[in-house]
Design goal:
Length: 145
């Protein structure tokens, strides 16, 4: 997870975000131009990124490796706990190690909202990677605006 520090964003944080953005952009390019992957698009990559974010928020690392039926059911049930209006339902799905204080809980809530938007069943309604990266740079802005 990427969280703020009292002194602001560290160089390491900025570098990780830059590398993450470059990696995702490169994946979008590769998948959209890979032979035999005509249906692969950046929206597919955004969906996969949403799965990874949700795994981090819930602490259920590796759930993406489950069978499709199990995975789809888990994501559908889990996403129901994520609301842009109320963070309390989120506590039911959070990794307990992330519940440290109110500030951290708000950042994790923002990460969950970002994950949910990436997991939108309608590919055209998923955010573009630039929005996702901007939201990750300042997660509290996601819930305050």
């Amino acid at each position: 997870m990427f969280f703020t520090t009292p002194s602001g964003r560290s160089k390491a944080y900025k570098q990780i975000n830059y590398q993450l953005g470059s990696f995702i952009s490169e994946c979008c390019f590769l998948f959209s131009n890979w032979p035999g992957t005509r249906n692969k698009t950046c929206t597919d990559d955004i969906y996969c990124f949403g799965k990874v974010l949700l795994e981090l928020v819930t602490g259920k690392l590796g759930i993406s490796a489950s069978s499709d039926a199990t995975l789809k059911d888990w994501f559908q049930r889990t996403v129901l706990h994520i609301s842009i209006y109320d963070k309390e339902p989120l506590i039911n799905i959070l990794d307990p190690s992330l519940i440290i204080d109110e500030d951290l809980l708000e950042e994790v809530w923002a990460m969950a909202i970002i994950a949910k938007s990436c997991l939108n069943p309608n590919p055209s309604r998923r955010p573009i990677i630039q929005y996702v990266l901007k939201a990750l740079e300042n997660p509290l802005k996601v819930i305050r605006e």
